Amino acid sequence: MTFEADTERVYPVPDEPATMIEATLCFPLRDVGGTEEVLLIEKRRGLGEGWYNGPGGKLEGEETPRECAVRETREEVGLEIDPADLEKAGELEFRLDGDRHTFCHVFRTRQFAGEPHPSEEAYPEWFAVDDVPYDRMWEDDRLWLPAVLEGETVVGEFRFVGGKPLDEAEFAGHDLERDVDFDAIGRSR
Ligand SMILES: Nc1ncnc2c1[nH]c(=O)n2[C@H]1C[C@H](O)[C@@H](COP(=O)(O)OP(=O)(O)OP(=O)(O)O)O1
């Protein structure tokens, strides 16, 4: 694995796109009468089918993570987002049996246009941020998503074992760092 170091911290770098999937997650937020809500999707197919997650998916072609998050959110739930309105909130590396499986860029935003609607891939639903259905999500989500929804930034590594597919593997451990300044390390793209 390659590491990028600044003065004190060490971050994994997504430098193996041929073998590792690069993906995104996007968490639209809104205030409804003083209650903070987040838009999640119930995944209707593919990895994590039947579980809740943020809209998102794999990078295509030469697109940046920001462009991917905008495209996936549009395709999955029909919301339009200006890429500049996405705030980088996290970088997550998912490892399977010791190998790097997926590197995921996490964004949040309060600026979007349109009303969410279901698609073939996803059924959208707003949840109060203190009532997120962690029992119906990836097991790692409860470790990092609360911080993202509270406006913090995170970098994490999450380890799974037991062979493919990833969503049938067993969650085995993690490392998590908070309060990462993505602008300062040039990783807010
Ligand atoms: N462990 C864990 N926790 C939380 N979120 C995720 C994981 N592993 C993951 O892969 N993910 C996220 C990362 C991505 O946003 C999705 C998986 O993307 P996927 O649906 O396979 O990508 P798409 O491009 O939408 O798929 P297709 O359209 O190609 O079918 O889960």
Provide an overview of this structure:
By secondary structure, the chain is mainly beta. The chain has helices at residues 65-77, 141-149; strands at residues 3-5, 10-12, 21-32, 35-43, 52-53, 56-58, 87-96, 99-109, 122-128, 154-161, 170-178. The protein has a single domain, classed as Nucleoside Triphosphate Pyrophosphohydrolase (Alpha-Beta Complex), CATH 3.90.79.10. The protein is 12% helix and 41% strand. The radius of gyration is 16 Å and the shape is globular. The two termini are 21 Å apart. Ligand LR5KHM72 binds next to strand 3, strand 6 and strand 8.
Keywords, separated by commas or semicolons:
189 residues, mainly beta, two-stranded antiparallel sheet, 11 strands, binds the ligand Nc1ncnc2c1[nH]c(=O)n2[C@H]1C[C@H](O)[C@@H](COP(=O)(O)OP(=O)(O)OP(=O)(O)O)O1
Explain briefly what this protein structure is.
Monomer. This protein is mainly beta and about 190 residues long. The chain is built from two helices and eleven strands.
Measured as a percent range, the helix fraction is 10-25%
Kindly report the CATH topology.
Nucleoside Triphosphate Pyrophosphohydrolase
Q: Strand portion, in percent?
A: 35-45%
Q: Architecture, CATH level 2?
A: Alpha-Beta Complex
- Overall number of strands: 11
Shape: globular
Elements, N to C (H/E): EEEEEEHEEEHEE
Secondary structure class reads mainly beta
Q: What is the CATH level 1 assignment? A: Alpha Beta
**Ligands, deduplicated:** ligand LR5KHM72
Give the integer mean of the pLDDT values: 92
The Rg value, from CA coordinates, equals 16 Å
Number of structurally distinct domains: 1
**Oligomeric form:** single chain
The end-to-end distance, rounded to whole angstroms, is 21 Å
CATH superfamily label:
Nucleoside Triphosphate Pyrophosphohydrolase
